[in-house]
Amino acid sequence: MVFSSFFYHLRTNGLKISLHEWITLLKALNQGLAYSNLWEFYYLSRAILVKSESDFDQFDIAFSSYFNEIRNTESISSELLAYLSQAIEQQSYDQDEVDRRTNQEFDELQRLLAQRLHEQVGAHNGGKRWIGTGGTSPLGNSGYSYTGIRVGGKSHNQNALQVASSREFRDFREDETLELRQFQSAFRRLRQMATPQSKEKTELDLQQTIAKTCQQGGLLHLSFRSPRRNAIKLLLLFDSGGSMEPHAQLCNQLFQSVRKANHFAQLKIYYFHNCPYNRIYKTPACIYPESIDTQWLIDQLSSDYKVIFVGDASMAIWEMRYYTGGRNNRPGNFISGLSWLQKFVQKFSHAIWLNPIPTSQWELSKGAESIQYIRKEISMYPLSLSGIEQGIRQLIASK
Fold first, then answer.
1. pLDDT one-digit tens code per residue, 21-32
2. Which pTM was predicted?
3. Distance (Å, rounded) from C-alpha 188 to C-alpha 210?
């Protein structure tokens, strides 16, 4: 079974599939591992061709569009999918009547879906026309029809294309803004910053053991490595208030995931407003009684701390150059916020800035000018899975 157009379709849709992987899939098909079943073929091809969980979603979209069995759910509103996720119980129906009414070709179903998406303005459940749940419409989920297109919900017929349409792996995409689970996954990558505790190799190296055993034709070869200790020191500084209000929930998720992580020998969390000024705050309220002297903090911490600033870097230029950032008219020492940022970067050579504003808006947003000033002083990355990964590489790179 050769269908090279599928290979090129996947490549065109951004999936990096090698000829070796494609040939492996063809060999698996020749051995009958898909069992002439589209559901099995979906899982077989995904297992062989997809290298990372972050590509699962892209594979689902490409798979469904190639086999042309479902409408891409990017065009289905989140409001519609939200109410479809709360299915009602199946309503009573006359099976013969439903079978006659819903025995439709797929081209007709696609036309109906496009029409209903254009016409439907609210939730409709238990019926036979609109996109809903628990009824006998061919569009929706958790109901009954002879043929149809499932929109949202869970599959009852085990059709691989219905799995593709559900976009189960949307949250794993590296270009998506992170949620708590993705934050925790990203920060697990900091484990590679742990350092060997001693030169004595007493800890089993599982990957090397597997590799050596395979090289020896299955003859077990145990490989050991020096045990690693948790030596990561992290200083996390959050921008709080003002233009950061829309990003408060996102930053709170990052805060929670870091606090729950066990990857750090030392963890310090403080807050600032717009830029670090002469005072750093212990709480998001950023009030003077709950603050410490910034210079004292810099002097107290060793230079091997990894520093992460989290903020939108958006402010009026005068706020960046002002010596207190305009916080409650508290006295300053005539050192600007930008100069304080430079002090941090000079002391802590491994420092990055994570920005919740998408990269595409850094030159277009209201604070574009201040973002450019800050980017000149410190490496800035978007607050996304790929952004954190790039930032972590920066933190662990030798300088």
1. 999 999 999 998
2. 0.50
3. 23
